[in-house]
Every structure is written in C-alpha cells, then in structure tokens.
Write a structure and sequence with these properties.
This protein has a single domain (20-146, 157-222), classed as Beta Barrel (Lipocalin), CATH 2.40.128.630. The longest helix is centred in the first third of the chain and has 6 residues, at 20-25. With 223 residues, the chain is mainly beta. It contains 1 helix and 15 strands. The chain has one helix at residues 20-25; strands at residues 30-37, 48-53, 57-62, 69-70, 90-93, 98-104, 107-115, 121-130, 145-148, 158-163, 169-176, 182-190, 201-203, 206-211, 214-219. It is 3% helix and 42% strand. The strands form 4 sheets. A 4-stranded antiparallel sheet has the order 1-2-3-4. Strands 5-6-7-8 form a 4-stranded antiparallel sheet, with no helix packed on it. A 4-stranded antiparallel sheet has the order 9-10-11-12, with no helix packed on it. Strand 7 and strand 8 form a beta hairpin. It is globular.
C-alpha cells in the first residue's frame, strides 16, 4: 500500500473572527463548538461549513477552495446567536432542504440552509426548544446531537441529544426534527466527573450512549 506524503506548507485558507483578541483574552475561544462541513450541493454556488464556539454564536462559512470566510446576511447577526457552545453540530436533509442542528446553553435549534434576497447563503431558524436542567447551576455549553431518519423522507427525522443535568446522570432525549416536540426522554447513565462530551450513536435501530464506565443501549420495546 502506498502511503501518501505528509501535508506541508502554509494552509490554503484561514478564517479568523474579527474580535479574536477579545475572544482570546476573555477565554471565549472560537472553535469550542467544532466545525461541520455541509454536503456538496447544499448550495448551488458555495461549498459550506458551520462552526461555533464559546462566544454565543455559530458562523456559516464559505469553504470554496481558497475562500474560507464567514457569510453574513444584512438581515441577521453574524455569527448567528445560539448561546455558548462546547458542543457539536449535526445535519440532515428533510427532503426539500438541508437542515443544521445546533445547540448552545440549554437550547437545541434547527436551521434551514437557504438564501437571502440577494441570493447569498443564509441560515433561517426553523424551530427551537430547551432541555430542562441541562448541565447544573451554570446551564452552559450546549450538547452534542445526532440525527436519524428514513433517508430523506419527510417527517421521519429524529434528533437525539444527551444532556448532563445537575442530578448526577446523563439523560437521552429524542425530538421530532420537524417541530422539536419531545418524543422520548430517559435517564441514560452516570455522568463522568466533569463534562461528558457524549455523542449519541444510532445504528441498526439502536441508540448507544457512553458514559462513566457504562454503555447504555436503547431500542424499541426495550430491546
């Protein structure tokens, strides 16, 4: 097997928030929410990505080769306000449009990937809900989400989230992706000593939640 050479040289493009020095000095660093690449073809002109962080916002980025930068609409704040995020985004296609799932503080939000009146890529908030007692007294940081669905068939999307309340346990939530109504909630496992950073994993009709020295598996009918 031929091993490709290591990448070297300067990066092809760099994105840095305009207030990076303030973010750094206040310990509200950009990137704590990770970056997610949206599928090619989500927009006919641009390759897109989203990225969030501690500063209370999520950026929509143009990732066309050599053009990494934030895409801001004159009609919305840039970054889009979501709350502080030590978390990760997820994505699904509801059959008609791309949908980005974000979280921040104690809220989960669904954004539709579309365009503004000038034809520029933009996110439109489709729905929002809160998880009760998500992470104890500070209620900060968001959480990781995953999405399951029957392909792109409308009405089949389910958003899964693992919350860390102050009660000493992790909780698994399931939401209808169309309107964020709660479909299911259950205590999942003992929480780790500090943060969980737990991502629910869906496979073969089962949901897997890892925690402190324990793996919990959920399925229909208690299987």
């Amino acid at each position: 097997m031929k091993v490709p050479p290591l990448l070297n040289g300067p990066p092809l493009a760099v994105f840095t928030p305009g207030d990076v020095n303030t973010l750094d000095s206040s310990d509200v660093d950009f990137g704590a929410g990770g970056i997610m690449l949206l599928p090619d073809g989500t927009n006919p002109t641009y390759l897109l990505a989203v990225a969030a962080g501690k500063q209370d916002g999520i950026y929509l980025l143009n990732r066309n080769p050599g053009q990494l930068k934030a895409i801001c609409s004159v009609y919305v704040l840039c970054p889009y306000p979501i709350g502080a995020c030590f978390c990760g985004e997820s994505y699904f296609n509801n059959g008609t449009s791309g949908q980005v799932v974000s979280s921040g503080d104690d809220s989960v939000m669904v954004w539709t990937v579309g365009t503004d009146i000038y034809g520029m890529p933009a996110l439109g908030r489709a729905s929002q809900t809160s998880l009760p007692n998500r992470i104890g007294p500070n209620n900060e940081g968001g959480f990781f989400t995953s999405v399951s669905s029957n392909g792109t068939q409308a009405g089949t999307g389910i958003i899964w989230a693992v919350a860390q309340p102050g009660s000493g346990s992790l909780s698994l939530f399931a939401f209808n992706a169309a309107n964020l109504s709660t479909l299911f909630s259950e205590t999942a496992a003992p929480q780790p000593a500090y943060r969980s950073f737990t991502v629910p994993v869906i496979a073969n009709g089962l949901v897997f939640v890892a925690a402190a020295h324990q793996l919990s598996i959920f399925g229909l009918g208690g299987q």
